[in-house]
Every structure is written in C-alpha cells, then in structure tokens.
Design brief:
mainly alpha, Fumarate Reductase Cytochrome B subunit, 4 helices, disordered N terminus
Length: 188
C-alpha cells in the first residue's frame, strides 16, 4: 500500500457548502405554494359574496394552506436537525446578521401565516376542508375571533410579501453582483 493515494480509501462526504436535497426540494415547493397562495388570497378577497364558485377559491386556498403548513413543519424539523451550510468567510458581520434575521422572520411568517388562517377558519361555521375532506373543527363559531385571526392573517401577509421581496432581491444580488455561489447553494 506504501505511497499510493490514500484519499480513495476515505468515505465520500456530503458537500458542506450546499443545502441538502430534501431542504432544497422543500424550499422550492414551499416557495411556490406560498407565492401561489398569496396571489390566490389577493384575488379571492376581491370576489363579492354570493358569486357562484367563490367558495371553490376559498377552499382551494385553505387546502393549500394546510398542505403548506404541514410542509413548513417538516422543513422546520429538517432545518433543526441539519445545520445549513456556513456563509462564505468573506461575508461581513452585518450581512451575516441581516441574513440570519431575515431568514428567522421568514420562518416566523411561514409558521404564523397558516396558523392564523387555520384559526380564523376554525372559528367559522364552514370550517376547513382539505381538498374536499372536512377536517375536524376544534373551535366554535365566533365572528369576533374569526375576524381577529383574519386581520392577523392579512397583516402577516403584507409583512411576508415584503420579506419575500427582500429575500429574492438578496438572492439576485448574490447571483448577479457578488457572484459568491450563495444562490447556487439552494439549486438542485
């Protein structure tokens, strides 16, 4: 065995500069769901009551919200069990803090948005149907609580949109200006 290449005997390790494939997959699926639900939510609130088919949009939004909520919990569990790749050493401390804060706020919105929507719908006489399957109703009909949680749901949506725009702009900056490979860490 003498002076041969001993590197081939070492086990293959994962690339520590990229996110794991499950994290990447969950990121993009959840991102598409969130953007789709924000667009659908904006559209459906403009539909006047009494219009035929209005409930279809609301039920689709709720179904996608339940799905997104479950995937977000899965993503959060994955994130807690798997450390993200470190930022490049050249990243300044203020930029690293900004990234940490913006990601934390995105996760907070990802948790609060479906939770407030779920609670608002739980205090509604119609409840929640997951793609046609009625979910157990854990609350009672209460217009005040429904409207309270809906106002939170709508306010969080505005903050969420602002954070998403910041996130996308930061990703574009990394891709087009910094060219520091951070964008590529989340690509399959």
């Amino acid at each position: 065995m003498g002076g041969g290449n001993q590197m081939s005997a070492l086990p293959v390790t994962a690339d520590k500069t990229r996110y794991t494939l499950p994290a990447i997959g969950l990121h993009w699926v959840i991102a598409l769901l969130i953007i789709g639900m924000l667009c659908l939510g904006y559209y459906m609130v403009g539909i006047p009551k009494g219009i035929p088919g209005r409930a279809v949009y609301f039920n689709l939004h709720k179904s996608l919200g339940v799905l997104a909520g479950a995937l977000i919990l899965l993503r959060l569990g994955w994130r807690l069990a798997h450390r993200p790749p470190p930022l490049p050493r050249a990243t300044s401390r203020p930029m690293a803090r900004a990234a940490q804060w913006s990601h934390g706020l995105l996760y907070l919105c990802m948790l609060l948005q479906p939770a407030t929507g779920f609670l608002s719908s739980s205090f509604n006489k119609y409840g929640i149907k997951f793609f046609g399957l009625a979910l157990p109703n854990w609350a009672w009909e209460d217009k005040h609580l429904r409207e309270l949680f809906m106002s939170y749901h709508q306010s969080i949506a505005i903050a969420f949109i602002a954070l998403i725009v910041i996130h996308v702009l930061a990703a574009c900056k990394h891709l087009l200006i910094d060219r520091d490979r951070i964008f590529g860490r989340m690509l399959p």
